[in-house]
Design a protein that fits this description.
450 residues; alpha/beta; 8-stranded mixed beta sheet; 4-stranded antiparallel beta sheet; 33% helix
Length: 450
């Protein structure tokens, strides 16, 4: 954030609390904030970067995990000399990925009415006029879902998972096809971290592909006839609205904490499965001001409690064949476990599913995704959704996906601010990967339909 002050809460705590600088319209600005990349070559260099995770004011976009793994960090202008000097003293070279984050936001995220005619066209929520190549507000997404069900009444239904802290209904579209037979469910959730806009956009694209192609495309028809599909574009609506009205890079929910100026819980650290186990720096945090705050107790967030209840009921009534929590960024397919580097019973099944999915994804545009268990691919994570679904509900195929992008020498870097021109290709390759993964399960996992 743009300024940080020492703040004492009547002797209750002492911490560095961010004070947001906002524009006249109320949006936090990121003028001259930079995203840099460093790659530690030794354990000593890695430890030096890890010490910076305690430094208030900087935001790790890609966390320090291991030697020779790149780390992306957003640094505000008033800390740049200090941080860059520190890194240089410890032998680390700094690569600037983005020199001014506000320029990226202004270029592609449309917070003003600078192009009102374009905005009016893209905000149409009728299925035939909805612009799938744009990011959309919470209200637009909900209106579009209602119109989808109105236009495809025999194929779709609206379902409600739960309510958010601020009272928004967390809804999704169920695609059930023409069969009246009881089928296992596939459950996709997007937008659990609110700044990851490409995740809801991709969920919306999936729904579009189902409704427009069922009965026309053989594979899609078979996918719907085999399973009931539950797709929730935005699981964290309060945070998502906040990214449109106040802070584009907000990650957490918006519930109050016991620290006055610190809001929200990381909803992917609050699930009741090995909750609160801080094995590594990014496993989670007990600090309410941290973006990784796991809450005062497991299931403390209404969004998580309600989703767990919904999934528990769905598992009991239908069974769940596949669960995926969709995120960005880093281009990863991830399987349990997150809380430990030990491999689960179904590890090889997980790897086979992810290999089939990723091989198809790469074939579309050459986008490279890595895959493996969460803890062994990125870092140890406690209280995550995919671990809870696998460990508590016993859903064998439970995953997390990190969508585009990642830094390469031949393309610009955007991180959480993926431009709208990349929505369609990101969604297309993800869609093709899921089709491949589903047919892998149908052909190789005999118990998937039972």
């Amino acid at each position: 954030m743009s300024t940080f002050i020492k703040y004492s809460l009547l002797l209750l705590c002492s911490t560095l609390v961010p004070v947001m600088m906002t524009s006249a319209a109320g949006m936090k600005r990121y003028d001259n904030y930079q995203v840099i990349q460093v790659t530690p070559k030794t354990v000593a260099e890695l430890d030096a970067v890890k010490r910076l995770t305690k430094k208030s004011g900087i935001d790790f976009w890609k966390e320090p995990t291991r030697v020779n793994a790149s780390i992306d960090v957003m640094v505000p202008p008033f800390l740049q000399n200090e941080i860059y000097g520190y890194l240089k003293r410890h032998g680390l070279s700094v690569l600037t990925l983005q020199a001014n984050i506000q320029d990226v936001i202004d270029a592609d995220m449309r917070y003003s009415d600078s192009k009102p005619s374009t905005r009016r066209r893209s905000s149409s929520t009728t299925p035939s006029r909805f612009d799938y190549s744009r990011y959309h507000t919470w209200d637009e997404v909900n209106s579009w879902m209602d119109n989808i069900v109105e236009n495809y009444p025999n194929l779709t239904e609206i379902f409600t998972v739960t309510n958010s802290y601020e009272g928004r209904r967390i809804r999704g579209v169920k695609i059930l096809g023409s069969s009246s037979e009881k089928k296992k469910a596939v459950f996709f959730e997007g937008g659990i971290h609110s700044r990851e806009w490409i995740s809801p956009a991709t969920m919306i694209f999936f729904i579009k592909e189902f409704v427009e192609n069922y009965g026309k495309d053989r594979k899609i028809t078979k996918m719907v006839d085999a399973f009931d599909w539950y797709i929730v574009p935005i699981l964290n609506p309060d945070g998502y609205v906040h990214t449109w009205t106040t802070d584009r890079l907000w990650r957490k929910s918006r519930e109050p904490t016991n620290v006055t100026l610190c809001f929200g819980v990381d909803l992917n650290r609050n699930w009741d499965y090995h909750w609160g186990e801080i094995i590594e720096t990014f496993s989670g945090s007990s600090d309410p001001c941290s973006i990784l705050y796991f809450g005062p107790k497991p299931n403390s967030s209404i969004e998580v409690t309600g989703t767990q209840t919904f999934l528990t009921d769905l598992s009991a009534s239908n069974g769940i064949a596949l669960f995926i929590d969709w995120h960005s960024y880093s281009q990863l397919f991830l399987s349990p476990w997150g809380y430990t580097r030990d491999l689960p019973e179904h590890y090889q099944d997980h790897m086979d599913f992810m290999e089939a999915s990723v091989d198809k994804l790469v074939s579309m545009y050459g986008t490279r995704y890595k895959y493996g268990s969460i803890a062994n691919t990125i870092y140890v994570v406690s209280g995550s959704s995919s671990d809870w679904v696998y460990g508590t509900l016993g859903v064998k195929h439970s995953y997390g996906v990190e969508l585009r992008d990642t830094f390469t020498l031949t393309s610009p870097f955007y991180g959480f601010l993926l431009p709208e021109k990349q929505i369609i290709p990101t969604a297309v390759e993800a869609w093709e990967s899921i089709k491949a993964g589903i047919f892998h399960l149908l052909e190789n996992d005999r118990g998937i339909l039972i």
